[in-house]
Automatic annotation (TrEMBL):
SUPFAM superfamilies (UniProt xref): Nucleotidylyl transferase, Riboflavin kinase-like
ATP-binding in keyword set: yes
Compositionally biased region (Polar residues): 304-326
Name under which the protein is recorded: Riboflavin kinase
Chain positions covered by the region annotation Disordered: 300-326
Ranges of residues in domain Riboflavin kinase: 245-416
Family: Belongs to the RibF family.
Catalytic activity: FMN + ATP + H(+) = FAD + diphosphate; riboflavin + ATP = FMN + ADP + H(+)
InterPro entries the UniProt entry points to: FAD_synthase (IPR015864), Riboflavin_kinase (IPR023468), Riboflavin_kinase_bac/euk (IPR015865), Riboflavin_kinase_dom_sf (IPR023465), Rossmann-like_a/b/a_fold (IPR014729)
Pathways involved: Cofactor biosynthesis; FAD biosynthesis; FAD from FMN: step 1/1
Keyword list, A-Z: ATP-binding, FAD, Flavoprotein, FMN, Kinase, Nucleotide-binding, Nucleotidyltransferase, Transferase
Naturally occurring in which organism (per UniProt): Bifidobacterium mongoliense DSM 21395
Molecular function terms from GO: ATP binding; FMN adenylyltransferase activity; riboflavin kinase activity
């Protein structure tokens, strides 16, 4: 898979590459944050149509997320986000999304640096560029997609343009999944108040109670298969439900740094993650999941490991790569020697609270293995399988040590159960 990073110039124009002078393209467009089941359906349709037409499959992916850019502009006098602005609401990094697209067999991914000037172009102009520059013969979109200035390019408008011009076809994927849910207008992380996987608080409500809940939380109608719903679920610790929408385990990735060494003194050495985390961090608590050692690596815009925020805007192509490290697939494989079950703690270490506010939120996965792991300086992937417990302040280190032993046992039981379910699904799919 080839990846090209494109930076619009100051007027929003993009210097689109010429992929071929004779071969057409099947194109899809979006942010694809999370790469949930809806995104997967759209990308799979794109790849399948491209193969049937002997065309290139092309994904035009926006980075940063349009929601971040427009939200930042609303509070910063209409300006674009400054280079390096962190997006805490992003479910996945660009590299994580590229990795999945590579697995799906996409030929080309064009990562467009999303700017306000670029967003101000009409959808007609944008689609004309894709036809003229990329040779787009078919556009694949989800059923409620919208694009262009003020999002006026909805499915009806794009279909009218397709039929009127006859220069490209529109293929619409019904990517709504099970339908719709109500999600609070403002997503506020809420730590579950008891052990075990949290349940949907609205599941047993009557219609009247649901209306009251929706009014209290300013609930808005949201697709089940959507990044917004996944974000909400993770903010409530509902890992099982989030993973069901994603079609895989939610994961974050980051660099292992030196911590305080408390885990080692307790006999549970943890891999402390630094501040620069790729992916949405679930609400505080103890989780069951997996730790994967992705090895030592460099993250830069020109290499194959990641795409950083561009610092220039001249309309040029600034990166071209193969998108993913071959070792990632090997290390992330189900029975890889670089993968271990892990109890994952997210929070502020309440047992050791010094009372002066110095404790910071930390992410500490403990790999359940007899081997001694030396992961400092390595990038690791932390996958979440389920919620075990809220964080608790224990009276002493011995009580915490006993609790960590219990969390480890629950982790092994939970991931083993999930693996059995996954294998059963794979068998039935065959």
């Amino acid at each position: 898979m080839n990846v090209t990073t494109l930076i619009p110039d100051g007027t929003g124009l993009v210097d689109w590459p010429t992929l071929s002078t004779v071969k057409k393209s099947v194109v899809t467009v979006g942010g694809f944050d999370g790469m949930h089941r809806g995104h997967l359906a759209v990308v799979k349709r794109t790849v399948a149509l491209a193969q049937s037409h002997r065309a290139y499959s092309v994904v035009v992916m926006f980075d940063p997320r349009p929601a971040l850019v427009h939200g930042y502009a609303a509070t910063h006098h209409g300006e674009d986000p400054a280079p390096g602005t962190r997006d805490p609401d992003a479910l996945t990094s660009v590299h994580q999304r590229l990795r999945i697209m590579h697995e799906l067999g996409v030929d080309h991914v064009l990562v467009v640096h999303y700017t306000l000037a670029f967003a101000a172009k009409s959808f007609r102009f944008f689609l004309g560029q894709l036809v003229g520059k990329l040779g787009m013969r078919t556009l694949v979109l989800g059923s409620d997609a919208a694009m262009g200035a003020n999002r006026t390019g909805d499915i009806a408008a794009i279909r009218n343009l397709s039929e009127a011009t006859g220069v490209f076809e529109l293929s619409v994927v019904e990517d709504l999944g099970p339908g719709y849910v109500r999600v609070p207008a403002v997503i506020t992380p809420r730590v579950p108040d008891r052990a075990g996987e949290p349940q949907d608080p609205t599941a047993q409500m009557t219609k009247a109670e649901l209306r009251a809940w929706s009014k209290e939380h300013q609930g808005r109608k949201t697709r089940v298969w959507s990044s917004s719903y996944v974000r909400y679920l993770l903010s409530q610790g509902r890992i099982h439900d989030a993973n069901e929408v994603l079609g895989s385990r939610h994961a974050i990735e980051g660099l292992v740094v030196h911590g305080e060494g408390l885990g080692r003194t307790l006999g549970f050495p943890t891999a402390n993650l630094g501040d620069d985390i790729d992916g949405y961090i679930p609400v505080d608590g103890v989780y069951a999941g997996w730790l994967v050692d992705l090895g030592e690596r460099n993250h830069d815009a020109s290499g194959s490991e990641a795409t950083s925020t561009p610092t220039q805007a001249n309309g040029e192509t600034v990166g071209f790569s193969s998108a993913t490290s071959p070792s990632d697939e090997i290390r992330m494989a189900a029975h890889s020697p670089w993968r271990w079950p892990a109890a994952i703690s997210i929070g502020t270490k309440p047992t050791y609270d010094d009372g002066n506010g110095a404790n910071q939120r930390v992410i500490e996965p403990y790999a359940i293995t007899k081997d001694w792991l030396e992961l400092y300086g390595h990038t690791v992937r932390v996958e979440f399988s389920g919620f075990i417990s809220p964080q608790i302040a224990f009276p002493d280190s011995e009580a915490l040590k006993r609790a960590m032993g219990g969390w480890s046992d629950k982790t092994l039981a939970l991931v083993a159960g999930n693996e059995a379910k996954d294998e059963a699904k794979d068998e039935s799919a065959r």
